[in-house]
Amino acid sequence: MFTDLIYRKTFNTYKLIFVPQWKSKPASWTKPNDCLWDAPGDFMTMVPLKEIYTSSFYDLRTELGHRTGIFRGILDIDNIDWPDVIDELEELKRQQSITGEVVRQLFGILSEKSPTEENGKQEMR
After folding, report:
1. Using CA atoms, how far apart are residues 46 and 44, in angstroms rounded to an integer?
2. Which of 15, 30, 80 is closest to 50 using CA atoms?
3. Cβ of 31: how many Cβ atoms within 10 Å?
């Protein structure tokens, strides 16, 4: 019973999102600000939830629309935008783990979507 109280207090105090086990990373809880909905699966600086949930819950792929509504609508998780790509490139450079393929993928995202401003917030189209 004491454990239940701790869990409830934690959820009332902190907004957390469950991240299933994925690749070599164990299952965990993380903050919404550390997540993106639609982002490359190998993103290092943010948690790519759509990729993880689609891979982890194969049987629920047909429910993707519902999950999108929950994460994007209710939990307000953003899709990738250009500052996220810049942050990722800087982190890859800092870790000296940048590869040509990753750079092409990230610059492809930048070239496909130019920055726009909607509702006072800069996003990619």
Report:
1. 6
2. 80
3. 11
Q: Which of 18, 5, 7 is nearest to 75 (CA)?
A: 18
Q: Percent of the chain beyond pLDDT 90?
A: 29
Phi/psi for 89 (5° steps) reads: -60, -40
The candidate with the shortest Cα–Cα distance to 85, out of 119, 46, 58, 29, is 46
Burial class from Cβ neighbours inside 10 Å (0-12, 13-18, 19+) for residue 35 reads buried
Question: CB of 67 within 8 A of CB of 55?
Answer: no
User: Which three-class secondary structure state does DSSP give residue 29?
Assistant: strand
> Of 45-49, 55-59, 71-75, which has the strongest mean pLDDT?
45-49
Per-residue pLDDT tens over the stretch 96-118: 877 788 888 888 888 886 665 45
